[in-house]
Specification:
With 329 residues, the protein is of the alpha+beta class. The protein has three domains: 4-76, Arc Repressor Mutant, subunit A; 84-118 and 232-328, 2-Layer Sandwich (Beta-Lactamase), CATH 3.30.450; 132-224, 2-Layer Sandwich (Enolase-like, domain 1). The protein has helices spanning 4-20, 26-33, 37-49, 66-76, 84-94, 101-116, 168-182, 190-198, 209-224, 245-254, 257-263, 312-328, and strands at 53-55, 62-64, 119-126, 132-139, 144-151, 156-162, 227-231, 273-276, 286-294, 298-307. The strands form three sheets. A five-stranded antiparallel sheet has the order 7-3-10-9-8, with helices on both faces. A hairpin with a 6-residue loop joins strand 1 (53-55) and strand 2. It is elongated. The two termini are 43 Å apart. The relative contact order is 0.14. The model has no long low-confidence stretch (mean pLDDT 87).
Length: 329
């Protein structure tokens, strides 16, 4: 258990290092706490022995260790109020009733990436509680049309398809068959039901059954799979700890869609969780803060990825604000 002075010293070092990305000297702490340099050096040595601070090779100052950041987040951090300017930007999005949920998520995290210079991720899936209510098609040209999929929770997805050489009548027969057989099916079971109930009999009703089955199967597969949006990926290039080309390449690879889904997977818990350094499964110098969200229409995970010296107090509050507003929408 740290003393109150040790807590204050550790907190100051964490906050200063987050701000400046430079080792913090005992002189700076002396000025802030009005203590002798000998006292501060002694306390810093104790914090180092506890594994909460580290020395660097280039300076006599100290930087927080991974354990030091964890102690700060768990015991010392006080959430930073969202500025009036940032609040206004976010509220304009959440108060816009014309925006779909997915657009609100993406736009709000674009703002967070812009104001923090961190990377934002949305990993969204359609809620298992959604069931298929209706499938419609709207002709656009002689060879293309828009397929509209509607769930009982009001979620609407549309996709433009090209079907050259196939009549609208054939398409409508396919849609009628799908509506008759799979209305009321949970969204995540639709692809399976198409495979085992529609595919075996569609040839009895539709001439171009193979092409049309594949078109509609792909529409539903795209509809039910995870949606991934990674915003501000290149922001990592602006951070001094990622000046190594090799390190940047490794992190960029981790942030590719096919990798990020495994990293930003959903937890069972609904609260905000902070993964520091090795815990992030991205890089030892990276922190990931994430939380689940759940609405009637969709559920998923939102995450902010940045350096280990992230503005934890600011990001946690921003993420909490976004989560609460998304779940109210």
């Amino acid at each position: 258990m740290l003393t109150s002075r040790q807590n204050e010293i550790l907190k100051l070092i964490v906050l200063e290092y987050i701000k400046l990305a430079k080792p913090v000297s005992s002189n700076l702490i002396c000025d802030r706490l009005k203590c002798s340099s000998a006292t501060i050096r002694s306390e810093m040595a104790v914090l180092e022995s506890f594994g909460l601070l580290e020395k660097t090779h280039t300076s006599s100052g100290r930087v927080p260790s991974e354990e030091g950041y964890r102690y700060y987040v768990d015991h010392l951090m006080k959430l930073k109020e969202i500025s009036a300017e940032d609040m206004l930007k976010l509220q304009l999005i959440f108060n816009n009733n014309q925006l779909e949920l997915s657009d609100c998520l993406k736009k709000s995290l674009e703002i967070v990436s812009d104001i923090t210079n961190y990377t934002s991720v949305v990993l969204g899936t359609k809620s298992h509680e959604n069931t298929l209510k209706e499938v419609n098609v709207v002709p656009l040209t002689d060879t293309s049309m828009t397929v509209i999929v509607i769930t009982d929770k009001g979620f609407v997805e549309h996709k433009t398809i090209n079907v050259p050489g196939i009549s609208l009548e054939e398409v409508k027969k396919t849609v009628n068959l799908i509506n008759n057989l799979i209305i009321g099916t949970p969204i995540d079971e639709v692809s399976s039901k198409l495979e085992f109930e529609v595919k075996p009999i569609i040839g009895n009703y539709v001439k171009e059954h193979e092409r049309l089955y594949n078109v509609f199967y792909n529409v539903f597969t795209n509809f039910t799979t995870t949606n991934i949006d990674v915003v501000g990926k290149k922001n990592i290039l602006k951070l001094p700890e990622f000046s190594s080309v090799e390190k940047v390449r490794e992190i960029m690879d981790k942030l590719d869609d096919e990798n990020i889904e495994n990293i930003v997977e959903e937890d069972d818990e609904n609260n905000i969780k902070v993964y520091i350094g090795k815990e992030s499964n991205i890089d030892d110098d990276v922190t990931m803060i994430k939380t689940k969200y759940k609405t009637d229409k969709e559920e998923g995970t939102i995450a902010i990825i940045g350096p280990k010296r992230m503005e934890y107090d600011r990001v946690v509050n921003l993420l909490e604000f976004i989560k609460n507003n998304i779940e109210k929408k």
